């Protein structure tokens, strides 16, 4: 772990507040790619959607970066937006471009570390060097490093070349999706990190309680309908999926989220397998990178770096979700 201070890399531990609660830094690059290239409201820089112009820097281990890979696959943007995959080990230099074990290296510039990409965009940048990064090859700069915004761009800005028939944030469901995200993000997506990176018993138990209470709420919702917002898959489902798929292999043990496994929730576990079966999705799930990254990189939680062999998992097993209505 570490961060850039005025363009220089410094190794630093995970941030916590005085009560031992994990503190997530806000992403700092927040511009948008738009169909016409006009800047988003309140922003100065505009980026026009064009095939071949943009690049994603991702980790296959990271749930936030995973969202962007799912949208790229489902919206059929593989030939439009290129990708570099960092190595799963994140040590004192942060994410690296060591091109081994399923990592691609930096396919644009051949750099060694992800923080060099941030410094290339702004030599005086101070902040984290996180994935995902949406990179503009023309202007050689970062457009955006906030996954929730990158997936919205992938959902619609590139529809001239991608699958325009799929909309994961349809106007009629936006209020509902926003409501679900407002529960799932703090309590589940970020909740597993708040649980795992807590440095006091009190902070751990607070996050743990919120996490399982939110999972119980979602389990109940999924006992009545196929997807989180009803009969069709939306952004809210993909945002939950990337946490669920990591839950039993990593968060239960490594982050001590062990009241129940996803496998113990009948609806959540079947729902997880249902989403995993959507064509294009299983190819974005890399359990080797996921397990190796968390158990291998977070030395404050797992000093030996030993990666557990289990649990047995079969996300490709049949599911029972066809009992619910699904939109055509
Ligand atoms: N808000 C960001 C969070 C991204 C994030 O925290 N990524 C992690 C990997 S899972 C990372 O790169 N951490 C390295 C760091 O923060 O130094 C997003 O959703 O895009």
TrEMBL record:
Its EC number is 1.8.5.-. Residues 170-294 form the GST C-terminal domain. InterPro entries: Glutathione-S-Trfase_C-like, Glutathione-S-Trfase_C_sf, Glutathione_S-Trfase, Glutathione_S-Trfase_N, GST_Omega-like_C, GST_Omega/GSH, Thioredoxin-like_sf. GO terms for molecular function: oxidoreductase activity. Pfam families: GST_C_2, GST_N_2. Keywords: Oxidoreductase. Coiled coil: none annotated. This is Glutathione S-transferase family protein.
């Amino acid at each position: 772990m570490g961060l850039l201070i005025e363009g220089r890399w410094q190794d630093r531990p995970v941030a916590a507040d005085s009560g031992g609660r994990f503190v997530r830094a806000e992403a700092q690059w927040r511009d948008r790619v738009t169909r016409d290239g006009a800047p988003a409201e309140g922003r100065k820089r505009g980026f026009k959607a064009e095939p071949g112009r943009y690049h994603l820097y991702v980790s296959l281990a990271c749930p936030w970066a995973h969202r962007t890979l799912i949208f790229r696959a489902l919206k059929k943007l593989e030939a439009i937006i290129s990708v570099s995959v960092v190595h799963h080990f994140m040590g004192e230099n942060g994410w690296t471009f060591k091109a081994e074990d399923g990592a691609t290296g930096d396919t644009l510039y051949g750099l060694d570390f992800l923080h060099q990409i941030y410094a290339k965009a702004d030599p005086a940048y101070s902040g984290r060097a996180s994935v995902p990064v949406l990179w503009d090859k023309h202007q050689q700069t970062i457009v955006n490093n906030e996954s929730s915004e990158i997936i919205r761009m992938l959902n619609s800005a590139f529809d001239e070349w991608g699958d325009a028939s799929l909309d994961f944030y349809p106007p009629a469901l936006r209020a509902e999706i926003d409501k679900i995200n407002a529960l799932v993000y703090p309590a589940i997506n970020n909740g597993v990190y708040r649980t795992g990176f807590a440095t006091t018993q009190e902070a751990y138990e607070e996050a743990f309680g919120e996490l399982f209470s939110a999972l119980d709420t979602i389990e109940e919702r999924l006992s009545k309908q196929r997807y989180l917002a009803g009969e069709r898959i939306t952004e809210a489902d993909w945002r939950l999926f990337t946490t669920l798929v990591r839950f039993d292999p990593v968060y239960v043990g490594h982050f001590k989220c062990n009241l129940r496994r996803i496998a113990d929730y009948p609806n959540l576990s079947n729902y997880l397998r249902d989403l995993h079966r959507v064509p294009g999705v299983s190819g974005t799930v890399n359990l080797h990178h996921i397990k190796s990254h968390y158990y291998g990189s977070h030395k404050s939680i797992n000093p030996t770096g030993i990666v557990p062999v289990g649990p047995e998992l079969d996300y490709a097993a049949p599911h029972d979700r066809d009992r619910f209505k699904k939109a055509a």
